[in-house]
Amino acid sequence: MNNNGQFDGEYKEVDPENGSPNNSGGPRGPKLWKVVLIALIAGVIGGGVVVGGYSWYQNQQDEQLNSDNSKAKTKTSNVKVNVSSDAEGAFNKIKGAVVSVEAYSKDDRSSSIAGMYGQSGDDSSGSQEEQASEGSGVIYKKSGDTAYVVTNNHVISGADRVETLMSDGHKLETEVVGHDAVSDLAVLKIDAKYVKQVASFGDSDKISVGETALAIGSPLGSDYATSLTQGIISAKKRTIDVTNSSGVATGQATVIQTDAAINPGNSGGPLINIGGQVIGINSMKLSSAGSSEASVEGMGFAIPSNEVVEIVNQLAENGKVSRPALGISLLDLDYISASDRQKTLKLPDSVTSGIVVMKVNSDSPLKDAGVKKYDVITGLGDKKVKDIVSLREALYEHKIGDKVKVKYYHDGKEKSTNVKLSLEANDSNTSAASNER
Question: Could you list the residue ranges that cross the membrane (predicted)?
Answer without folding.
Answer: 35-57
